[in-house]
Amino acid sequence: MTVNRNKLQRRCGEELELFSNASAESNKQLKPLDRRPGMHTDIRRKTTQYGEQLKAKQTLRFYYGVSEKQFFRTYKEADRRQGSTVENLLALLESRLDNVVYRMGFASTRAEARQLVSHKAIAVNGTTVNIKSYSLREGDKVSVREKSKSQLRIKSALEMRDKELIDWVVVDDKDLSGTYSRVPTSEELPQFFSVNSVIELYSK
Questions:
Q1: Over the Cα atoms of the chain, what is R_g?
Q2: 110: buried, middle or exposed (CB in 10 Å: 19+, 13-18, 0-12)?
Q3: DSSP-assigned beta bridge partners for residue 170
Q4: In terms of Cα–Cα distance, which of 152, 155, 56 is closest to 105?
Q5: pLDDT per residue as tens digits for the range 52-85
Q6: Nearest CA among 59, 63, 131, 126 for reference residue 97
Q7: Could you please report the per-residue DSSP string of 148-204?
Q8: Beta bridge partners of 171
Q9: 20 to 30 Å CA-CA from 200: which of 41, 90, 126, 127?
Q10: Each residue of 8-41: pLDDT tens digit?
């Protein structure tokens, strides 16, 4: 992202996983999340309903690293599908290839995962895919291509990865591959997401 990552987190007031574990220590020296970016951050401002809805949208968008245009398209697709728009929206965002590459630990941040996908380092079911927004289905196999397995950033990401993986991906560290086994529920994702507010914003 070209925008200062700490500024984005302070704007949303939440940890958005924009930093790798390696930079976590240095990140402690940055301004706290309860301080808004800009001057006079201690001045309390009355938050409107629209302001809260906008913040909810930006929080979700920044977390997954999706552009405004991509996010709106994703919402429209979620609204078009049968079932809960909230669950559909989260499922579409979570099943993005760049996000799953990050979830599997092959990249230390989602931004790095997007680079791996764009540079054709990732395959889905044996076929190279360089579309970051590619939507995975349950059971799809994601793997690092053979010629990319020696990349130091991938090895470094795996070393920094938390040992306990999320329940909806299964990873083979030796083969540098994994399976997107199922779609997570909203209860399994960060609870600071206020997706209902996002739906209300776009429903006006």
A1: 18
A2: buried
A3: 179
A4: 155
A5: 999 999 999 999 999 999 999 999 999 999 999 9
A6: 131
A7: GTT-HHHHHHHHHS-SS--TTEEEETTTTEEEE--PPPGGGS-TT--HHHHHHHHH-
A8: 178
A9: 41
A10: 554 455 555 555 554 444 444 444 445 555 554 5
Give CATH superfamily name and number for 5-93+190-203: Ribosomal protein S4/S9, N-terminal domain (1.10.1050.10)
The answer to whether 133 and 110 are in contact (CB under 8 A) is no
CATH number, span 97-180: 3.10.290.10
Helices (H), 28-167: 49-64, 68-80, 85-94, 97-103, 110-118, 152-160
What letter would DSSP give residue 96? B
What is the value of pTM for the model shown?
0.80
Opening angle at CA 38, ends 34 and 41, nearest 5 = 45
Supply 199's token pair. 């739906």
Size of the chain, expressed as the number of residues it contains? 204
